[in-house]
Amino acid sequence: MNLFKNVRLNLALNILKKEIKRKRYKHQTIAFKDATQIGLLFNVTSTDDFTQIQEFVSFLKDNAKKVHVIGFIPQGELTTYLLKSSEIDYLTNDHLNWLYIPKKERIQKFTDRPLDILINLSPKMYFPLNYIAAKTRAKFKIGQYDKQATFCYDFMIDNKNNPSLSEFIHQIKHYLLLINNEQTPL
């Protein structure tokens, strides 16, 4: 079973890499203060994770950012705490084809949106989220370091020493506030 899953994922990765090579993607580092449209991707594993994601969305909105969100639920169960948020689009395994590629109608609105920054909050490699990140028209893409997904992101954070979502969000905030900010010389 695992072998079959790995073959499917490798095939999907190769297809995605070929698609990305054909697509001209303009990389651009955007300062957090200049960003207006931010996309978030995340996977849902617990209510605690979901609470932290909601707090991060609030942080972005408090900084005058328009936030667009897609959450992936690998188990496929939309629990009541997830249904509370109408501003989040969700993907489940039912929305994926046999290669784990999200169905176009579920993600096209998100991937076609011109985002300034895209952030994948998933602390683990989930191919459907990396697929969306690679296909999204964001100027600057941030994600967790994964050697198989380096072509998906412009900036990756290696958080393997402390892989918690709260630490990852802390690191993202830290780097977002540092990138491209004008600093006075010492």
Summarize the structure.
With 186 residues, this protein is an alpha/beta fold. 39% of the residues lie in helices and 19% in strands. The protein is built from 6 helices and 6 strands; from the N terminus they run H-E-H-E-H-E-H-E-H-E-E-H.
Features:
single chain; 186 residues; alpha/beta; 6-stranded parallel beta sheet; globular
* Mean of residue pLDDT values: 85
Q: Which structural category do the helix and sheet elements fall into?
A: alpha/beta
Which sheet architecture does the biggest sheet show? 6 strands, parallel
**Separation of termini?**
58 Å
The strand order across the widest sheet is 3-2-1-4-5-6
How many runs of DSSP E, i.e. beta strands?
6
Count of alpha and pi helical runs: 6
Helix content: 25-40%
Show unreliable segments.
none
Series of H and E elements: HEHEHEHEHEEH
The assembly state of the depicted protein chains is single chain
The backbone outline, from C-alpha atoms, is globular
Question: What share of residues are in beta strands?
Answer: 15-25%
Whole-angstrom Rg: 16 Å
